[in-house]
Amino acid sequence: xxxxxxxxxxxxxxxxxxxxxxxxxxxxxxxxxxxxxxxxxxxxxxxxxxxxxxxxxxxxxxxxxxxxxxxxxxxxxxxxxxxxxxxxxxxxxxxxxxxxxxxxxxxxxxxxxxxxxxxxxxxxxxxxxxxxxxxxxxxxxxxxxxxxxxxxxxxxxxxxxxxxxxxxxxxxxxxxxxxxxxxxxxxxxxxxxxxxxxxxxxxxxxxxxxxxxxxxxxxxxxxxxxxxxxxxxxxxxxxxxxxxxxxxxxxxxxxxxxxxxxxxxxxxxxxxxxxxxxxxxxxxxxxxxx
Length: 290
Ligand code: NDP
Ligand code: OXD
What we know:
The protein is of the alpha/beta class. It has helices spanning 50-53, 70-88, 91-99, 124-134, 162-167, 188-193, 211-219, 260-275, and strands spanning 22-25, 41-44, 64-65, 116-120, 139-144, 153-157, 171-174, 198-202, 223-228, 248-250. Helix 2 crosses helix 4 (124-134).
């Protein structure tokens, strides 16, 4: 077998497109992958593959492998647990009291068992997020395309059950893939269906959220706030009102960052499987869009 060819392709590097067998990337330039005539498989360096599927010229005969890694899921779960608890324990309010040297207790305390959390997306990541939050005794539910059976997590499935799911979600966490069906799912209709004072955490993609609808729902008092890790435009422009909104926490797409050592191993193992004729794992279904 010929040795693997490893090329760095930045547009300026010299390479022969016909010599490239496998590609790794996250958000390649649209139209780039179709210029590689002998491509056999593509490995996404992230769990989300919208950066590939947004390319109308993606060569669909070439399998696209999603990045699935327990450590990545664990870090996503840590982020969601941390921000759910910051909200639930009213930490932002105590931060403000501290800045004013004010001793104020919050009585009676809020109990996790009285707070309902809903996870949009119960896949690799959403399932672990739900399980880790369940350990804190929140009332857990999740929404997915197909019905799930996860201990202590009520399952809602399909568009017909979305409204009921939203109506019982005091904290709504979005961990969906970005597809034509889920784009802008966090919009004014969705927010109106959440209970009063609900809180939103978006760790999926900026394209899920209509930012102006979120700001309007918070400013009207219907939502109590939000934590956002992902944005329609990244980096978030300095002029975005999200940066300075007193009830919105912004982080720069860091909920979980793929570990380059694991990414390399996943690609090497996948290439070895492919070359020995075994089926690839975690292949994206182009019809579903994830
Ligand atoms: P999976 O593919 O494992 O899970 C996706 C889940 O979403 C599934 O439960 C699926 O339902 C559900 N879903 C998809 N479309 C619909 C729909 N139309 N209606 C209802 N449910 C739907 O993805 P992962 O958990 O691995 O990743 C989720 C996303 O997290 C990624 O796509 C990425 O955007 C984001 N992410 C963000 C990171 C960050 O740092 N902020 C880091 C890593 C990932 P079903 O199970 O029935 O198929
Ligand atoms: C991912 C991400 O999809 O980091 O893995 O956003």
